[in-house]
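User: Please predict the structure of the protein below. I'd like the answer in structure-token form so I can feed it into my own downstream comparison script.

Assistant: Understood. Taking the following sequence of 307 residues as input:
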Amino acid sequence: MNITLNSAPWLLLIFSLPSKKASERVGIWRKLQKYGTLALRNSGYVLPNTPVNQERFEWLATAIRGFKGEASVLQVQAIDDLPSDVLKEQFREERKPDYTALIREVQQLKPSAQGFSTQLARLKRRFEEIAEIDFFESPLRAKAEEALYKAEHPAPAQERAGKGRVSKMEYQNRAWITRTRPGIDRVSSAWLIKRFIDSKATFLFDGNPKAHPEAVPFDMYQAGGFGHEGENCTFETLCARFGTADKKVRLIGQAIHDADLDDEKFGRTEGITINQILKGWAKQGIPDDELLRRGMDLIEGLYHSIA
């Protein structure tokens, strides 16, 4: 493994402790876990190079030396067999179990149970702890935020009741509203709306649907409109509610589900690739309406590629 040193995007902590320092080793390991480090095989631990992470590694190195060990903090420009994109994805994978466990706990909360507010506050603090070391925005971060929002703002009983089919005729020539910076579920849902539900649909971007009462919300955190239902992403919900039976749409729905919920339920990867493209465009500062249009074009291309 060759490491190039310079002013760099990565920090690497290399250390050793005497074999008799078992309890101290456990303490250091717990700190490394808390700081969100990535174990780099037998070479040490990696973090993105930020002032906060630099300070944390320096304090750990000082503590290790105080335990009669040896420690060095390196600024790393590149690692030849681990490109930056691979490292970033590994950091995202490290946070996946944290978010998954958090979401599971949030979904088990019952607003009517004693101590609900205390438990919710604890889980919100846990979310902040995870988000602090989620250096490259795990796709599950938004899901955790959504779960917390729904726990704090439960839908009225009548809205949680079973939702059946709706008529397309009631949703013609409508404005549809969703959140800013559309990702895979929202661009594919917009494509589905335009292609199979409301051919003259227009789209708005706002985090507050109440500011546009005439618009139909989709994939919003707030109750109402069309969003995640049970294990379904918004795209799947729209297909079910409007009775879209097209075989190609069903297969696209599987790809969107796997990309949006990141649960590998169907083992499809097309949506994951499209989502990465959308994220790249978003980082370039592409406006929301253009991002949506480009994403819809990608889904249209995927639709025609399916035999």
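That's the full token string. The first helix runs from residue 22 to 34.
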